[in-house]
Design goal:
By secondary structure, the protein is of the alpha/beta class. It has a single domain, classed as P-loop containing nucleotide triphosphate hydrolases (Rossmann fold, 3-Layer(aba) Sandwich). The protein is 48% helix and 15% strand. It contains seven helices and five strands. The radius of gyration is 16 Å and the shape is globular. The model has no long low-confidence stretch (mean pLDDT 96).
Length: 189
C-alpha cells in the first residue's frame, strides 16, 4: 500500500489535484482510493456541519470530529490495497488556534503515519475566495479571506522539507504539470 496526502487551504484545489494524481496512477495500472476529510462518515459529517456554524463551540466540535474522522481513516489504511490518497490530513492542524497549531502538528506528525508523498497545494487567499464563491455550497467558518490569510501563514510555518509545495494560484495546467513533475522526481509515477 502506498500512502499520499494532498493538503492545503480551503479552495486551493486539493480534491482536483488528488483526482488528477489518481488518474495518473490508474493509467499505470494502480488501484487508487481517495479519502477526503471531512469524509461522509458519521464523524466527518458532524465536523462538516460544525464548520458551517460559527463561534468557539462550533470550531471545537469541527476540530474534535475532524480528528476522529482522520483517525478512522488511518485505522483503515492497513486494509487498503494499491494507493490511498488522503485529501486534507496533517495540515488540518493549521486551522487550530495559532498558539496550538505547532503543538498539534507535532503530536499528529509523530503519532500518525507520514505519507510517502505529501503535497501542500498553496494558493493566494484572494484566489481561493474567488474559487470558493464559484461553488454551490454553504460557506464554512474559515472561508473568508481574512481567515484564509491567517491559516495560510500558520500552515506555511508548519511545512518542512518533507512536504512538496506547489502554487495553485494560477489558473490552467501549469500547477498540475508541476505536481506531476514532483511525482516523477520522487518515483511515485
Amino acid at each position: 500500500m502506498r500512502f499520499i496526502a494532498v493538503d492545503g487551504l480551503d479552495g486551493c484545489g486539493k480534491d482536483t489535484h488528488a483526482r488528477r494524481i489518481a488518474r495518473l496512477l490508474e493509467s499505470k495500472g494502480e488501484k487508487v482510493t481517495i479519502v477526503s476529510h471531512p469524509s461522509n462518515r458519521r464523524f466527518g459529517r458532524i465536523s462538516k456541519k460544525s464548520l458551517e456554524g460559527s463561534g468557539k463551540l462550533a470550531r471545537l466540535w469541527a476540530t474534535v470530529f475532524y480528528i476522529l474522522d482522520v483517525l478512522v481513516s488511518v485505522k483503515g489504511l492497513r486494509r487498503q490495497e494499491g494507493t490511498v490518497i488522503f485529501v486534507r490530513y496533517l495540515m488540518g492542524a493549521a486551522y487550530l488556534p495559532r498558539s496550538l497549531a505547532p503543538y498539534g502538528y507535532r503530536v499528529f506528525r509523530n503519532l500518525l503515519p507520514f505519507p510517502e508523498f505529501a503535497l501542500f497545494v498553496d494558493i493566494e487567499p484572494a484566489v481561493a475566495i474567488r474559487r470558493i464563491e464559484e461553488r454551490d455550497h454553504t460557506r464554512e467558518m474559515f472561508e473568508t479571506e481574512e481567515k484564509l490569510v491567517a491559516v495560510r501563514e500558520v500552515a506555511k510555518s508548519l511545512l518542512s522539507g518533507e512536504w512538496a509545495v506547489i502554487d495553485n494560484s494560477r489558473d490552467g495546467e501549469e500547477p498540475f504539470r508541476e505536481a506531476e513533475g514532483l511525482l516523477r522526481d520522487r518515483s511515485i509515477i
